[in-house]
UniProtKB/TrEMBL annotation:
Residues 85-311 form the AB hydrolase-1 domain. InterPro entries: AB_hydrolase_1 (IPR000073), AB_hydrolase_fold (IPR029058). The keyword Repeat does not apply. It holds the Pfam family Abhydrolase_6. Keywords: Signal. Coiled coil: none annotated. It comes from the Eukaryota. This is AB hydrolase-1 domain-containing protein. SUPFAM superfamilies: alpha/beta-Hydrolases (SSF53474). It comes from Zasmidium cellare ATCC 36951. Residues 1-19 form the signal peptide. The keyword 4Fe-4S does not apply.
Amino acid sequence: MRLAWCILFLLGSTLPAQSEPTCNLLTINVDITALNIQLPSNISGLTLDILTALPKVQIQGTYQIAARYCEPEVKNSSRTNTLQLLVHGVTYTKDYWSGLGPPGQGYDGDKYSYVAYASKQGYPTLAIDRICNGNSSHPNGLTVIQLPANTEALYQVILQLQPSPTAGGRRFNKVIPVCHSEGATVCELLMQVHPDAPVATYVIHGFTNQFLVGGAASVAAVVFLPASIAAPTRFPGLDPTYLLTTSASGSQGVFYYGDYDKQVAAYDFANTNPVPAGELATSALSQLPAPLYKGSLLLLNGQNDQIFCAVLPTDPLIGGLGNCGTGATSTTARTQVLFPAAKFYYNQVANTGHDLDLHRTAAQTFKISHDYLASQGF
């Protein structure tokens, strides 16, 4: 069943009047073919040069992507067919976009809910569990689930959302990926390998071209262990290539800074989700440029992002302060070098760390993102 038909069916089963977004769960089948990397047995210390020099191996498969579609509470005819496609980062699921819970059930209601904000602006949203996360398929987390495979899975989802003569049902004339952290690395690679993908624009959160500075120390700081060992009651029998953060202080230092609620950080850590080792090992591929992407994008960061704006390589490990800088010389602004042909816009949220949506400043993140969309005519 095509995704468009699925969404039409779900809409038909709900009442038209609502005071909050009307959301339904669905499953998207994707057939992917990707050029992964033939990783060595020891994946620690892989640099970008080493990654790009390693042999490639083609993988193919059919997988399921779990998703949540939300029809907005506010009807805006100019946005009815403009879909925000929400792509989360590592240790999260689609619930990242609604305050670490389903819409309306997130931490402190809708305070940390991007979905709720979008709904009030009249945008439908589709939040997905990236392949290997949440309720999506969990193939081998080292040989199959790497950044290229993740990117192809997202690309296939996007293709299913587009109008076509045979699709029927609910059609979206504009699809806007909103991508956070590892989701942003997926979207950057998508701009590299599919620069003409049918998207209207990109909104990127928590990403720069300086991942190689603090990335390795960030991984070390959270102390990954196989999820089936670290949390056997939550993840019994899960393939050992799926890793779980085990350091509460390390996770808090990497994901949060400044204006945030420590209880949110504690709840976040208590409900952390597994990360495939192959995804961590290949994230650096997102540091290559996307010279053929000629569309537009907004890059929005917390000014104190520890992962992507580490000043020294050891900072995430020793609790050093992330600092993206300010203005045209900021790390955020200088990330334009990855998108030389694009219409590049950037902004930062002060006193905020990597997980922008989970800080008390989340409302600023939501407003900046949607002001950008409005400025682009969406």
